[in-house]
Amino acid sequence: MATAVQNTAYKVNADVQRPRGWKGIKWTKWISLVFLTVMAIITLMPFVWVVSTSLRNSVQSFTVPPKWIPTDMDFSNYSRVFDEIPFWNQIGNSFIITLSVVVGQLVTASLAGYAFARLRFPGRNVLFTLVLATLMIPGQATIIPVFILISRGLHLNDTQWALIIPALATAFGTFLLRQYFKGIPDDYEEAALVEGANQWQIFTRIYLPLASPGMAILAVLTFNAKWNDYFSPLIFMNTKERFPITLGIVDLQGYMATGSISVVLAGIVLSTIPVIIIYILGQRYLVEGLMAGGLKG
Amino acid sequence: MSSSAIHYPPEHRRNFIGRLLAADTISGVKRQRMLLGYLFIAPTVIGLFVFVIGPMIGSFGLSFYKWNVFRPPEFVGLANFQRLAGDARVFLSFKTTFILVAMTVIMLEGLALALALSVYRLANRALSTFFRTAYFLPVLLSGAAVAITLGYLFNKDFGVINYYLGLLGIPKIPWLTSSDTVLFTISLTTVWRNLGFTFIIYLGGLSTMPGEILEAAEVDGAQGWQKLLRITLPLLSPTILFAAVTDIIKMLQFFDEPFIMTRGGPGDASRTVVMMMYESGFGNLDFGYGSAIALVLFAVIMIVTGIQFYLSRRWVFYG
Fold this sequence. Notes:
The structure holds two protein chains of two kinds.
Chain A: H1 2-17, H2 24-54, H3 76-84, H4 87-118, H5 124-133, H6 139-153, H7 161-164, H8 171-182, H9 187-194, H10 199-210, H11 212-227, H12 231-236, H13 245-255, H14 261-296
Chain B: H1 16-20, H2 26-62, E1 65-68, E2 71-75, H3 79-85, H4 88-121, H5 125-136, H6 143-153, H7 160-167, H8 182-207, H9 211-219, H10 224-252, H11 256-261, H12 273-283, H13 287-314
Antiparallel strand pairs in B: 1-2
């Protein structure tokens, strides 16, 4: 739907941009194209550099001029990543933590989003306002008490639970999915009631599938945020075998402070592959979700 | 009336709860939905109470205590805040953070807006898809990966950036090793990573703008800059405010990039508020003082949010 809106917007705009006897318009068009291209080069260069340098002979990896096209094809940097850090453990940890949080948030947020959108119960508005208010509290303002609770109260420090449990409830996700459930007409529910469906069936068989675009957006955003999280693992994790990969690559750099950059960059490439795959799979949802997100303002 | 056999309670309504929630009465369905409502919100509400609202109150309480892991907590009243008011390093970290926020957000909003306006004007769909994808790629990376990579690129002696500047005859710039340039460098790094995110939000704002208004403006003779300043930007102002405030709040909690790139150095030149809090709370294990710093940061964020509310009521045009 959003794409359709966008298409017409492009068309309208294409008409508007057609020069109408004033050469200045063409000029600005060229200037903006040059600007876009320069910015794209600045954005993409580091990616090219990371990949090509990760394949360079590690002895010369930090010499200039840089090689933009890899000629050494030295894959030993990649195998050294596995020697220097427990890579499989760490990437596995990242997967366990990230997928648990994604699934957990989808469950809690779809339940709460549905309840706040479609079920009537005393205190609903007050509770929803409270949920929204927590959006304003930055994670850093609560991290010390959360650390005390996790480490001294629950004794979960240095376990994956420390990174999963506090992230299961999500105010943002609840808000996002509530918007989706609100957009679905009541008629579906009435029809289902007539057919003899119970409340649980109405939720799982009718409304949940219809809210799946919203759930996809939440899943992609949460995956990206959690996979790349550095601050909370830094606080909760001590054992290298239990690190997620973000801590792993910083650790790799620490080892190699004077040594090979190519190995660190190989680690970065390896650690980024899963997010790129998720992005390719969920690209549509991610970009549309963010574009829609800007409108809530 | 009531003696009709049809109205006898079926099996499941024999007990009290069954009767209360009977699906074949209107009030029963209502009660079912009520109960379901509480069950459905329970995980979220409990989770937020335990891990957000509770700890927020906890932070507030902790800031009145002197507490490290080795000794039991001791109530010290406002001592942490008094210490904070006289702590030059904390003061500097706030100053550093504000400078970083200002530089980053100005560059970020300006560039993202310019990119969005340019991409939006592109009639060629393939090109616009290419640019959108390109600008968005850095958003996928972790702050850690970006900090490491750009840290290498900005290296004074072996960095690619100084190499190419050298070809242009520009002497080597100590990007990360001089207190004059370090904040600008970290700011550039952050802009590089977040530009795609802010850009997409602006593009979203632009593509939902009512086309008729733009066309009407054209018919009335609005062209180029005039159209941009008088029509497009005012229509976009809710999006600009939203994006700027979101970015300000995000940057106030700045940590990953400076922590990995410079560890706060040289000296304290790039030490942010959250790094100070991290060091007090988890380095020195001084939970009370760390909480006090966190609370001041929280107050700053609340003020920014308050300003947003005020501005959005008074200045922003909602179509």
